[in-house]
Amino acid sequence: MDRQEKTLYLIALTKVEGVGDTRVKKLVAYCGGAKEVFSKSRTFLNKIPNIGNAIANAVSSSDVLKQAEDELAFAHKNNVRAISFLDDDYPQRLKHCADSPIVLYAKGKGNINPSRAISIVGTRNATRKGKEITESIVEELAKADVTIISGLAYGIDVAAHRACLKFDVPTIGCLAHGLDRVYPKVHSNTATEMLEKGALITDFPIGTNPDRENFPKRNRIVAGMADATIVVEAGIKGGALITANLAFDYDRDVFAVPGRIADEYSVGCNRIIQSNKAALITSGDDVLKALGWDESAEKRKTQPQTKLLIDLSEGQEKIVSVLREKAHTIDRLTVLSGY
Questions:
Q1: For residues 6 and 13, what is the distance between their CA atoms, to the nearest angstrom?
Q2: Half-sphere exposure of 233 toward its Cβ, with a 13 Å CA cutoff?
Q3: 3-state secondary structure string, 294-324?
């Protein structure tokens, strides 16, 4: 089975009512593949843990395959890549998350598997100071060849994307709707510019509106695709804190810019710092140092330690000298060292 056919059946499974990402993965694992799910009997499917009769019946609907065909036709026509969690080019960091999407739709020339990725999030009601801090952080992160991920929303998100365009940094926008539109519409020009070195990405199919409930779901991609998440401004509630908590749950680094205790959009940042869910930062350089991506760390990598800082016996020195020459098997080491 070729990649497109495999993706077709996976897309079809995502369209089965009542089946989420975790259940699709379970169905594929139990049946031996996405196509095989559709060839299994209802009785077989019903016996799979946490599937049940309703889902077993829904899988039998041929309509979902037609919907999947329409999705792939749109993707082909609009230069959209449909990438399944079984594909090698699926974002590797995201793949390690239990709730990662079955299929991602991506558009743009940028690499969605960058060697270094940072998410920057914050309130939609960003202050002028918050936008300035965001721009400054992006400018400093640019030194380390990173890709910046955010949600293309009002406020801190779009400030991060625009700073990336200003400083020639690849940036990925994670959307809470299908790739047949851009929301908010006023960010359409920014989104178009991002495609040159970055990408737009979503797990929502065409025709999906930017409904309120989609944004928290979208945030798992923002958190899951990155090595670390930075929160610049956040209120007591909102998507930025949801993203930060998801990143924390994924065992990723979380950083937050602190603010005055009386500022409405510093409360969230101060709280996650206070609860030890985020490290306090005041600059992009703080992030680079914490992750070991700063220049001094790079210099240490290129200048490895060549001398052990302990006294060795004559026998130990002989073994170390053998190890310095090249890689050996354990038997070869025994012969050369005389032990």
A1: 11
A2: 23
A3: CHHHHHHHHCCCCCCCCCCCHHHHHHHHHHH
